[in-house]
Amino acid sequence: MTNQNTILLNQANLAVLPEGVTVPNYDRSAVTAGIVHIGVGGFHRSHEAFYTDDYMQQSGDLSWGICGVGLREGDRKMQSILKEQDFLYTLTVKHPNGQVENRVIGCLTDFLLSCDDPQKVIDKMASEETKIVSLTITEGGYNFNPVTDGFDFEHPDVVHDLAHPESPRLVFGYLAASLKIRKDAGKKPFTVQSCDNIQHNGNMTRKMLLAYVGKFDQDLAQWIANEVQFPNAMVDRITPATTPADMAYLADEVGLQDNWPVVCEPFIQWIIEDKFSDTRPFWEQVGAQFVADVTPYEKMKIRLLNAGHSVLGILGSIDVQETIDSAVQEPLFRRYLRLFMDSEVTPILDPVPGIELSEYKDVLFERFSNPNIKDSLSRICLESSSKVATFLMPTLLENLAKQGKIECVTLVIAAWCYYSDKRANLRGEPLDINDVMADELHKTAALTAQNPLAFLQLESVFGDVKSQPRFVTEYQKQIKTLYAHGDIKSQMQEIVNQAG
Ligand code: CS2
User: CA torsion, points 332, 337, 343, 346, in degrees to nearest 10?
Assistant: First the structure.
């Protein structure tokens, strides 16, 4: 049913929005953009932007607006919708008990598309007002090559950027060009703040940027190494992809027309190393935590939450599940996931200050079970090639090195081979696979019938794990059974039974 009184979300309408929708209490016309953010998707809008909006509301310090930047043509839709809404959007927080909070976030001040005007993006980042350049560019966006343990200079976009530094395609070109302007002008650099799910995400950004810049400007690389801070951080808030139903809910039940709202869970966490090149918002006043060393927190989060998502996502996809909450409601999936966490991940985690791991895992199960967060397995399986490499492989390798358990993760890799080979679930229904490596995954996995170990040739994901006999034996056993019987649940059950 269409609500006749639906109000369009924009600056002029902020004062007359429906009751119950929280709006920014600060004067948006006075906000300046201390932050440039690259990669404005759902997660940035539910997480860093939420904290920053909250901070500006509570502190009245309006120098922390966020100028969004999109590096891909695919960002145009988000840019044009947000522009029409004066860069306002609604954050719909859905609690497990059905309670819903709608809040309009006001801290985005602009949204630039690099493909329209690369120089404008470089100038914005170089401007003195910018104190922080933050990133959500996905795990694959760091251009890391696990085989060489370095920057992938073969990537066609890197080849392009080295030849055309004035109109780069990748983030590193923008960071290099804008930092060079700062350096040449004798100004302080900005902080580079990664918000991606990579362990030591700050160190990774630094290492990749220094490798890239070192290729053409040693002085600049040296200056960056000395002057620029790249705090590591653990970021967390489950943010499913926005659906037409989310927009219809706002329009019909709340009376607010927002063409790209964000839906998320109530849980939120951000643990950041307190090392910045210049000033920063006091995000700790609104719940973020600053620590000297984020290592145990990020390892815990990535290896349990993100890896747990990938376990459910890959096994669930071939077993015709559709969302995380429905998969985790199934007793077998629940038991399997807990077994993976308890027997393969927990033993390799370090003690985490202030956090009891068994409680953390219980909370993860509650979060995954939230029936109002319909987190689709297709979102979870987006770019699985970098997720498997980042979330699962390190755990497998650490367990191989110290004689730890490997059964649960090995079956997930076998299932991912089947998924990539058949591009269908076990009922034969097609799966929509979105992965930069999709063709390569498919071609390699399709060789499994002749060579059960074929999939492991993908070194950029699996490194040299094919030379580890204990893994190879287990993998081969799982692959053969899966291809012979096509019954993933029996294999999961067997692993659970064996664990007792
Ligand atoms: C998910 C993450 O897509 C994924 O891999 O595990 O997007 C996850 O929802 C967030 O990291 C939660 O903080």
Answer: -160
CA distances from 184 to 122, 126, 170, 223, 229 (A): 14, 11, 22, 10, 18
Nearest protein Cα to ligand 1, atom 2: 306
* Length of the chain counted residue by residue: 500
Task: Tell me the residue range of the domain where 362 lies.
Answer: 295-499
Give the Å distance between the CA of 305 and the centre of ligand 1: 7
Tokens of 320: 């015709």
Residue minimizing CA distance to atom 4 of ligand 1: 380
Atom of ligand 1 nearest to the CA of 235: 13
Given 248, 269, 291, the domain boundary residue is 291
282 and 390 share one domain: no
CATH number of the domain that residue 341 is part of? 1.10.1040.10
Q: Are residues 162 and 303 in the same domain?
A: no
Does residue 238 have its Cβ closer than 6 Å to ligand 1? yes
How far apart CA 240 and CA 210 sit, in angstroms, is 34
pLDDT one-digit tens code per residue, 23-75: 999 999 999 999 999 999 999 999 999 999 999 999 999 999 999 999 999 99
The answer to whether 310 and 345 are in contact (CB under 8 A) is no
Q: For ligand 1, say whether the CB of 386 is within 6 Å of any of its atoms.
A: no
End-to-end CA distance of the chain: 52
- Report the SS3 class of residue 191: strand
CB within 8 Å of 126: residues ≥ 6 apart: 177, 178, 179, 181, 182
Which contacts qualify for 394-399: CB closer than 8 Å, 24 or more apart? 394/199, 394/303, 395/303, 395/307, 395/344, 395/345, 395/348, 396/465, 396/471, 397/463, 397/465, 398/348, 399/344, 399/347, 399/348
Of 270, 291, 312, which closes a domain? 291
pLDDT tens digits for range 83-101:
999 999 999 999 999 999 9
